[in-house]
Amino acid sequence: MPTLLLRLQGPLQSWGTRSRFDHRDTWPYPTKSGVVGLLAAALGRDRKEDVSDLAALRMGVRVDRKGVLKVDYQTAQSVLAADLEAKRDVQSWRYFLSDAAFLVGLEGERTPLEALHRALKRPRFPLYLGRKSYVPSPPPFLPDGLVEASLEEALKGYPYLVGKAPPDDLLLVLEAEEGRLVYDQPAGPFSERRFAARYVREEVLPKEAVPEGPPAWEVTRVAH
After folding, report:
1. Distant-in-sequence, close-in-space partners of 24: CB < 8 Å, separation ≥ 6
2. Checking phi first, is residue 105 left (phi over 0); if not, alpha (psi -120 to 50) or beta?
3. Rg of the chain (C-alpha set)
4. What one-character DSSP code corresponds to residue 192?
5. Is the pTM of this model over 0.70?
6. What are the pLDDT digits (tens) for 148-170?
7. 224: burial class by Cβ within 10 Å (0-12, 13-18, 19+)?
8. Contact 34, 15 (CB under 8 A)
9. CA–CA separation, 176 and 198 (whole Å)
């Protein structure tokens, strides 16, 4: 089954899973809800539209550079309370990753992956890395990102994103039938903010196993 690869890299990223009220967390790698949202934006879908086809794709992540966890402390004065009468001062803590780089893979049927590959090259809506102000640089689109390989093979076989060779072993995260439980599976349109659980399996990818040259498999060429 083919796999679509995309690069999520930029100065700032944030992939929240348990964000509530004044504390906005970030997962150490991209969440499925965040990636599905990025793909929906590339296709030009409204937040009220169905994303079940995108959520059905099997996802994996290779952490090429984990980045640095940081927090942005913010305050706001005289914020109107929920009762629309009282005002209060508000504090918030917004966590994010600085200078991180991830290779994301999505495994599924060829036709929808080809459409997503084209959409990533010419996205309908702006793309961002978890928050609207966190712009990707370089773009997520990889010209050779649509490959004839399984999710595991694609993530293990693609060249290192941020240099000639990785200085350390890499973390590989694969959607699986059992493993770590995460609550980032979209269970409805994003306007409804409904998410379900899924399992991911984390493993170490030795740095010696990451190629420095082009992928070993044949690249699927997409007409644009």
Report:
1. 14, 16, 92, 93, 94, 95
2. beta
3. 18
4. G
5. yes
6. 999 999 999 999 999 888 999 99
7. exposed
8. yes
9. 8
